[in-house]
Design goal:
Length: about 70
């Protein structure tokens, strides 16, 4: 399972957050719990979109290699 860093803060009655490692993954919600759910959903969508884009741009003879950090 991959781990990512959610940065969260509260301001003016709202919770704001973003995923540190993936640009564009951010959300705002009324509660911290709702924010975590929204960030997870947004992250899953972003990763799937990025994966789809990568597969669509791959050439027929390209290969895939699982990689872990």
């Amino acid at each position: 399972m991959n781990e990512f860093t959610a940065v969260m803060k509260r301001s003016d009655g709202w919770w704001y957050g973003w995923i540190e490692e993936v640009p564009g993954v951010n959300a705002q919600e009324r509660s911290r719990k709702e924010l975590i759910v929204a960030l997870r959903e947004c992250l899953a969508e972003a990763l799937e979109m990025n994966r789809r884009d990568a597969l669509e741009s791959a050439e027929q003879d390209d290969t895939e290699e699982p990689t872990a950090l």
